[in-house]
Structures are given as structure tokens and as C-alpha cells.
Amino acid sequence: MTLFNEIDPDDAPGATRPPETENWRRAETDGLLTLWLDCPGTSTNTISETVLRELDVLLDDAKQAQPRGVALRSAKRGGFAAGADIDGFADLRGQGATEMLQQGHDVLDKLAALPVPTIAVIHGATLGGGLELALACDYRIGVEGVKVGFPEIQLGLHPGLGGTVRLTQLIDPVEAMQMMLTGRSAHDRKARRLGILDALVPERHVEAAMDAAANGKLSHDGGGLRASALRTRAARSLAANRMRAEAEKTAPNAHFPAPFALIELWERHGGDPSAMQQAEVRSFCDLLDSATAQNLIRVFFLRRRLKSGATGPDGIDHVHVIGAGAMGAEIAAWAAIQGRRVTIEDVALAPLGETVRRATEICGKRHLGGIETRDALDRLMPDPDRLGRARADLIIEAAPEKMEVKEKIYGELADQMKPGAILATNTSSLPLSSLVTAAPVPGHFAGLHFFNPVSKMPLVEVVSHDLASADTLDRLARFANGIDRLPARVKDYPGFLVNRVLAPYMMEALAMLDEGHDKEALDRAALAFGMPMGPVTLADSVGLDICLEVALSLREGLDVPVAETPGWLQDMVDKGHTGRKAGRGLYDYETEKPPKVPADDPDQNVIDRLILPMCNAAVECLRKGIAEDADTVDGALIFGTGWAPFRGGPLHYARVRRDVPDVLTKLAAQHGPRFAPDPGWDDFG
């Protein structure tokens, strides 16, 4: 990312911290006042109540001093501001939330009304409250690589500091609504094209752009004809109805009220900015009280908790990946994109070329520029001669799930790995207790279980075994965090944590198909609960051959079994009907499309049979110490599978629902011991 290539923003040149502030520094050059946001003790700015209160004082001073312009900048290298300080409002309710939000509105309104030109110079991540602060300025100058957006919808909220009003007034209202409804960011050139930015420049041209803005020489791009056409309630209603229909497909109103509250807010008040601003405060506070928002805020904290124990250097500069299949290729590509030097080997040459192609594709989807893509590909080196084995700090084995294949590789590595290097296996089904006997140095061996696709799934299970050293596990957790993945520390167990909990979901669906249940009805019921994919579709996506392997790996060693696989499943696999990758599985993909629309009135008994065994398995893993606590279990399932995030995770759902053990007992009486409540429920509160 091309950020601050000529100066170091952490120096905030010439800026001093006024005695009344902790979060701001100020500097004045040629009559232009620059306020540098610099929250102490963190590499990332957030917009907190204190930040805004201090800004309020600085704006009063600026109004009195009458500089020729006021510019807001960030002294953090990573970006302008990541959004609002969630810690500051997560526990607020009712009048307290309303008062805090109104105070924030008053400060931004004061910024917008300042009688001198105001300029936001934004770089890197400029999100949520940070973008709202920028929108309150007269001009926005983006530094190349800037990314702007409103991710509040991911917390079950919408912008609450005037963002709904200012963005829909500034640019095409439909484009503005799409940004807020999806939570997607607009990268530098798109933000400029939409009209959010008045200029997009490299850092070396920022001073000139600021001077131009202060002198009124930057032109604004308004919302154009679409904005004029949507000033009437009738026109907005037509657009709003289309938005509701689209939102219902991916975020049903029954589970996700925020998109629909945002649409209602714009439809009713989009022609009256003052009324819309007042209604925004009320709507935000109502959403903040909702179970959905509270659970999604919980998910935010779960993410932060997984990362919190994995900070600091990992000592891993060179990664070598063995196996350029789907998983190995993605692991190698992702590590290279995240700045690691990577070599990758395979028994064939074609997969190595595919790895480079895949890395290029991921770079494009990540909106990396040409130089960044070039640098990432330079770090990714196909290694048919296996030279990286002797040079790597970390070797990730992503070979086929066959014990004899992995043992052969480990035997070769014994004389090739450099001292202190770590060997990690990406196995998802083989027990580490069996593999460790073949590892060159048992203490330097562990599991590093990525999820497919690596570039999209944020979780990595760091899997321990009895002989793994604490230093090895710590370094692997820090490595996962260092490549922007979430490390969940788990112990060796059939399926580890995530697959142990997820397997009953698919296996029970197969058993229900064997009983004669309709596959689409099963999938639609699961979608209605909030799962990202129905269990039948998931089995096809994973691969029915893999499902069989998972079932076999879980058959022994579990206190509560999963459902037996029907005999016809083996027949399908033998015929090559292994799922989506083969074009045919439980669905025939030439003639059928798996459902994407949730059931309107799903059968609760079907939902319970699919979901409650997952809760039961989660309690089993908690009782056995496979994960250290309930938050790790919930976080791993949400980030590793997409488990209904608005419900807060399987254990949180069970805690809120309260009757899960009783329902499991009834299901066990009807369908067998696989539903028997785990003993851990006795201690689960």
C-alpha cells in the first residue's frame, strides 16, 4: 500500500500536543492549522467519546483563531481511524446511549459549521466513525491506498454520527446505501469515482492538495441526477423496496434488523437532512438494544480475544509449504501476500503454476496495486527442487490425508530441516498423536489447521499434543496472527475443535436424508436458523469423500457418537459422485441449484436435530479442555464455519436458550444415543 512514502506520519512533523488533550496534536504552517489524531498506546486510532470531546475544544480554539483552513490528519501509519471505540458504547443502553450519540453529533456539526475551509486528509483504513469525521469536513483528500467504508452493519448497526445523512447527501444515494447496507469498503480510486474523495494523491502531493482546498480550488462532485431524482418520498420508496428485497436474500429481517432500519430511515427522511439526523440517533439506539447487535458486538470481542494472546514477533521469515493442492496453494499465496518469503513444492509442476495463478487472483480480489502484487509474487517461489526445506523457519505440510505419505515426508525432513525450525501439519482428520512419532523433533511439531479457502476463512487452529513445546505453540499462534488470521489454540482430538463440532451437522443431515427428509427442506431450515450454508449443500461442498473420511476419523474416541453414515454414501463416492467438485453429489449441479432462500416457517424439530448436536459437541470439547474456554469455542465456530454469528456462537446460544439438555434427552429417546446430553452440561451455566 502506498502510504506516507515521503514522511513518517508517526512523527506528525512539527506538531505539539495541547495540554488539554491526550488524543490530538496540532501544528500550524502558513496559516493552515493541522490537527493530528494520535490516540496514545495503540497503533490504530478509534473515535471515542474522549476524542470527540477534545476535538470540540480544539474547534472552539480554531473558530476564535480563524486560520485560513483546518486540516484533520492521522499520526498512525496504518490509517486515519478504524471506526468508533466499541468498548465505549457496547454496554450503553437507553438514555445514556442517546446522550452520548447526540454529543458526538454536536461536535461533528460544529466541525461542519466551522467558518473556514475544513479538510480531512485520510489514508489507510478510514472506517465507521473515522469516515463520519471526514464527511463532516468540506473536503476529503485521499492518500493513495486509502480505504473508506461503513462496516457498522456487521455489528447489527448502521452509522450513527451523521454518516447516513452526509453520505447520501454527498454521493449518489443508491451507491451510498449500498455501501452502508453491505459494509463493503471503497478503495482509493473507487472512492474518488463515487465522489467521496475530492482528490486522490500520493503523500508527496498532500501539502499542495491541502493548500488548494484551503484556497477553494478543489471542486466537489455531487450526487448528480440520481440524487435529484430521489428527493421525493415516492421515488425513494421504489428504490427502498428493491433494497429490502435484496437485503432479505442475504440478511433476513427476522435475524438482521439493521439493514431494514437503515432503509426505512432513508426512505422516510432522505429528503430532510435535519429530520434524518435526529431519526438516525433514535434508530441507532434502538438497534443497539437488540439481541442481534449485542451478539454481533460479542463476535467483535471474540475476534479481539483470539488475537490478544498471539502478539509479538514469531521469528518466522521463510515459510516452506509441502503440497500445492488447493489448501497448500492458498496457504502459500496468503503467506506471501502477508509479507512472508514462501517456497512451495509439489511432486508435479502444474500445481506450482496454479499456485502463482491463484496468488495473482487473490491479489486482485484484495484490491492490491500493481507494485504490491508484484512484490507478493516475488516473495512466492515455486520450488520443485525442494531447496526451501533446508532454509525455512517454518515448514507447513499440506500433503494428502494419508498417514504413510506424511510419515515418508517427515522421514525425509529429519536430515533437511535447519535447527530450531518448526514443522506444522495442516491435517484435518489425522491425529497428531500418531503423526508425532514420525516428526523429526516432536517438540517442534504441531498442527496448523487452516480452513478453505484460506484467503477468506479467518480462523487457524493451532493444535497441540503432549510433546509440543510451549515456544512452538506460541510462535505458531503469533505467526497466524502475523498473517492476519485468527489463532484458536486447541488440543489434539478427533476433528480437533471445529470439525468435531461441525461434523454432527452434516452427519445428521445424511441420516435424515436416509429417513426420507427432503434435502431442500433441510437446507432451508438451516438457513432459516442462520447458518451460512445448509448441511446438504455443505456436505457437497466439502466433498462426500471427505465426509466419509471425517466420519471414519470420528468413529472412535468420542464420548457421544455422530450419526452413522448411510450405506448409499459409499456407493455414491465409488461412482465418483462426490459433490460440487464432481458436478454431482447429493445435488445434481447440471439440473439443480441448492437453495439460498431460508424457509419461511421451518420445522423446529428439524432445526433442533441439526443444531443441538453441535451445541452438545461444543460442551464436550469444553469439558475435555480441547479449547480453554467457551469464548474460544464460540469464536472458533463463528470464524471457522460462519456459525450463525447473530446468535453469538453455539455455547452462547445454548446458554440463552436454556432448554438444550432437556431437548437433547427427548431426541435421544426418539433417535438414539448420539443425542445423549454430554456430562458437561451439569457444569455449564
UniProtKB/TrEMBL annotation:
Pathway: Lipid metabolism; fatty acid beta-oxidation
GO molecular-function term, one example from the UniProt record: long-chain (3S)-3-hydroxyacyl-CoA dehydrogenase (NAD+) activity
PROSITE patterns assigned to the protein according to its UniProt record, in alphabetical order: 3HCDH (PS00067), ENOYL_COA_HYDRATASE (PS00166)
3-hydroxyacyl-CoA dehydrogenase NAD binding domain residues: 318-492
Top-level lineage group: Bacteria
Keyword rRNA processing: no
The 3-hydroxyacyl-CoA dehydrogenase C-terminal domain, residue ranges: 495-589
Keywords noted in UniProt: Fatty acid metabolism, Lipid degradation, Lipid metabolism, Lyase, Multifunctional enzyme, NAD, Oxidoreductase
Documented EC number(s): 4.2.1.17
UniProt name for this protein: enoyl-CoA hydratase
Organism for this UniProt entry: Sagittula stellata (strain ATCC 700073 / DSM 11524 / E-37)
